[in-house]
Protein: UDP-4-amino-4-deoxy-L-arabinose-oxoglutarate aminotransferase
Organism: Sulfuricaulis limicola
Amino acid sequence: MTKPYVSVVIPVYNEQENLPDLFLRLTTALDKSGQSYEILFTNDGSRDNSLALLRDFHRQRPKQVRVIDFNGNFGQHMAIMAAFERARGDVIVTLDADLQNPPEEIPKLLREIEKGHDVVGGYRKDRHDSWFRRKASRLLNIVRERTTRIRMRDQGCMLRAYRRNIVEHITASGETSTFIPALAMSYAASPVEVEVEHAARAAGTSKYRLYDLIRLNFDLMTGFSVVPLQMFTLFGMAVAAGSLVFVVFLFIRRLVVGPEAEGLFTLFAILYFLVGVGIMGLGVIGEYIGRIYQEVRRRPRFMIRDIYEQLND
């Protein structure tokens, strides 16, 4: 098949209200760019009418629209990964289906690619999210940068562009759970970030719950760094040294003052604190062990039910 210049990858999960407007605005923007393109939609187990709309888009533009249909919900990053494995463009752009990142901003990313950058990340201008989401995102950005040394101004913005060689390295990694923007940044030789517009969600609700955001950032930190393990090792050494000093102090106090019962509740408080820290440390270790378990099982990362595409020009 004819190789397009740009492949636009869009994961879709229950976005029937946004898809018609997205398709119209996206195709209009890409037609105006004058570059050859393809659009790859991945239906990530949608329970609404999203798949029917995507199939209709394919019928309208069979040469440019391809639809990957999962047989279940495997998550945003696996939906993107499935499209990455099948994208044919020299440049691959990722875009969410909720229209919060306008498709009209894609040419801005392509101009940076044409300047020689291999990864172009977007960061959102005047975010139209809740106060809690903005503050949590800022905190998580700081934690991620301190633990992984991967610098991204806005890790939650999925409007990004990658050169083909970067995408090929990402798909070759074969990891069961990963964070695509961070993985791309770790492979990039000349990354850059640009400011992109951000709009309030026109319809529907965000698919990321608080738990999903926490889960995603656990994957990010444990997938790219061992700093959490090192931090708990150092903390354990400090606690052990402090405990030894405290035991010596209590022993000397016992010899000087004699038996005491007043400090019993203080000891219980210290004990409960250390038990809590120990349980949290086991949780961190469990995260790493869980990643190892997922990798050694070698189960498919996702399952495709059908692909709608035109096989010949």
The chain has two domains: 6-205+301-308, 227-297. Residues 227-297 form one domain. The chain has a mean pLDDT of 83. The longest helix spans residues 264-297.
